[in-house]
Amino acid sequence: MEFTPVLRSELLKIRTLRSLVGALCAVLLTTALFSALAGGDSGGPDADPLFSAFFGVSFGQIAAIAFGTTAVAAEFRGGALSATLAAVPRRGRWFAAKAVAVGVPVMVVGLLTGGVSLAVGKAALGERAADLTWGQEVRGVVGCALYLTLMALLAAGLAALLRSGVATLSLLVPFLLIVSFVIGDMSDSFADVLPDRAGQVVLHRTWDGAFGPWTGLAITALWAAAALAAGVWSVRRRDV
User: Fold this and answer.
1) Which of 28-37, 92-101, 123-132, 222-231 has the lowest mean pLDDT?
2) How sure is the predictor about 186, in pLDDT bands with cuts at 50, 70 and 90?
3) What does the alpha-carbon distance between residue 110 and residue 203 come to, in Å, rounded to a whole number?
4) Dihedral angle computed from the Cα positions of residues 131, 40, 64 and 181, in that order, rounded to the nearest 10 degrees
5) In terms of Cα–Cα distance, which of 197, 190, 232, 198 is closest to 214?
6) What Cα–Cα distance (Å) separates residue 18 from each residue in 28, 67, 110, 166, 169?
7) What is the pLDDT of residue 219?
């Protein structure tokens, strides 16, 4: 089977699973809500207005991760993957289609989320957002979409490697909410290359770390690529 019909099939799976549609909606709602709350907080004169407007991404990424995890982990329940591979024997082609089917919806929702978060955040910030330039705002919106997409793909790759949604979420969620901050307090230099810390530099107006916004996203992309490579290796080498 050619790649295009395989991709259509994977996109159809996503549209028909309520949990996946709900996770995409949660990306937008959660990010916008927490961005509004962060913007309403005074934060002090030294607070970064751009990051305040996109503060909710730290929470919205959990929904993006849940989306990527569930989209792949669902294949390992109830013999679904056996049926899929019967129709698409080339496992690499199927996994590539799955990755695209995960990345494209998150990218679209991420752009919408970035725009809404910026609008909501600026409204909550008021005059504190007056100094933001058009270039910084565009970078924040595009960076938000790319970051959420990369984190969803990272989760998709790990889900294929671990073959369990529970295991993947049990690994990633505590890491992002707890471990990453602990490591950051212990060693800033090491924290700079963590996928979440590196990728979120693009959401800051200014930064003090070793990497700039696009370099940071490139580091997150390397993490996602490594996870996808491990995932496709697992799909190809291990029995269904």
Assistant:
1) 123-132
2) low
3) 13
4) 90
5) 198
6) 16, 11, 19, 18, 19
7) 97
Tell me the two tokens of residue 74. 């669902």
pTM, two decimals, is 0.94
- Where helices occur in 74-210 by DSSP H, the ranges are 80-87, 91-125, 134-162, 165-174, 180-186, 188-191, 195-199
pLDDT band at 203 (very low <50, low <70, confident <90, very high): very high
Q: What are phi and psi of 236, to 5 degrees?
A: -75, -35
Compute the distance between CA of residue 67 and CA of residue 215 in angstroms, rounded to an integer: 25
In angstroms, the CA 51 to CA 234 distance is 37
- Burial of residue 51 (number of CB atoms within 10 Å: 0-12, 13-18, 19+): buried
- Residue among 100, 72, 68, 66 at smallest CA distance from 84: 72
